[in-house]
Structure formats: C-alpha cells, structure tokens
Amino acid sequence: HPHFELLVRLRDEDGTVVQPGEFIPAAERYNVMPAIDRWVVARTLSTLAHHRGSVDRPFFTLSINLSGTSLNDEHFLEFLIAQLAVHDLTPGAICFEITETAAIANLSNVVYFMRELKARGCSFSLDDFGSGLSSFTYLKTLPVDYLKIDGQFVQGVTRDAIDRSMVEAISQIGRSMGIMTVAERVESAEVLAELARLGVGFAQGF
C-alpha cells in the first residue's frame, strides 16, 4: 500500500513560504518545536479520523516527523496517546519518523515512547540511518519498523563503492532483523535499479 511523508512549510507575515531548514532550527532553539509537533499531529489525525481503507479509498500510511525536543517533552507522549484514542485510526495509518541522532540521545525514554505508541497501532521509521557512528549497535534496542537510509549514501550508490557497500550493509542488516529499508533522495532510474539489486525494499523521491 502507498506510503506518504507529511511535509511542513511556514508562511511568514507577507505570505512567503519559509522552508523547514530555515524555521525548524529557530523553533528548536527557542523550544517551540513541541508546540509545532502538537499542531501537526492534531491537524493530521483529525483530517484522517474518518479514513478507512476501502475499494474507493485505498489504505495508506502517512509518516509524521517528530523533533528530538518533542521526545524530551514529558507531556508529549500522553498528548499523542490522547489524540490516538480520540481519533481511533486504522492500525498502521500513522508512522512516526525519528532521526537516529534524536533516538540515541535519550535511548531508554525513546524505547518506552516507541513501545507505547506501537501498542496503539503506530509504526516507526528511523530517519537518516547510517549518519551516526554507532548505528547498528542501537538497532537491537529500538523497536523500529523502517530504516530510512541516509540520502548521502543513496545518491552515490551507482558511482561510489563505499556508498554502495554502506547501502548494501544496511539492507542486509535490516532483512536479518525483519526491518524494512527505505532509500531517501532517489532521483534517477539508475539509482532505483541499483537499490533493487542491493535488496532495498522501498524508495522515496526528493
């Protein structure tokens, strides 16, 4: 079934669209990302609340990125649990994306956070996987459903032997652990064909 990733943009006072690379660092610095994440989750779940898979409206999974600062907010988990209870979505409808860096920064809390939401029908992606030095070590602990292979490796997969080896290693370790792999920043048919040859399960455009 189709997977989609929710992308967020900000409109400033004169209506200009501000890209996330510009406003998210400022939002994290001033600790307003938890408020933004709450707004995104509430709007998304209320929009999908009555969506159920059917012949006319096929089932899909929607991914929502969560900030590391939201994961450290002691009230954020209870907010999510309350939202999920109110909207009662089909299991598998929502996938939360957490960066590898944010996951390992507070590992025990993140593991608890993930288990509580997986028990309520959510799935998880570990975003930008491979960018950290100890990636494979933490996989035994984190109950993730998807590994999103960092796009810096994916873009060079047809021309750089090291990038190709990294992607292949992540694909193999994912298969052995029953975790699905997603390649980020796929921009050409050649890259897509090489990813299929290496056993990567999904591809995401850029």
Please provide a brief summary of the model.
The protein contains ten helices and nine strands. By secondary structure, it is an alpha/beta fold. It has a seven-stranded parallel β-sheet with strand order 1-4-5-6-7-8-9. The protein has a two-stranded antiparallel sheet with strand order 2-3.
Q: What ranges have pLDDT less than 50 throughout 5 or more consecutive residues?
A: none
Overall mean pLDDT? 88
Structural class, from secondary structure content? alpha/beta
Q: Got a strand count? A: 9
What features would you describe in this structure?
The protein is an alpha/beta fold and 206 residues long. It contains 10 helices and 9 strands. The strands form 2 sheets. It has a 7-stranded parallel sheet. α2 runs parallel beside α4. It is globular, with a radius of gyration of 17 Å. It starts with a strand and ends with a strand. The mean pLDDT is 88.
Question: Which secondary structure elements does this structure contain, and how are they paired or packed?
Answer:
Layout: E1 3-5, E2 10-11, E3 17-18, H1 20-29, H2 33-48, E4 61-65, H3 68-71, H4 76-87, E5 94-99, H5 100-105, H6 107-118, E6 123-129, H7 135-139, E7 146-149, H8 151-154, H9 161-177, E8 180-183, H10 189-198, E9 202-203
Parallel strand pairs: 1-4, 4-5, 5-6, 6-7, 7-8, 8-9
Antiparallel strand pairs: 2-3
What structural keywords apply?
single chain; 206 residues; alpha/beta; seven-stranded parallel beta sheet; two-stranded antiparallel ribbon; 47% helix; globular
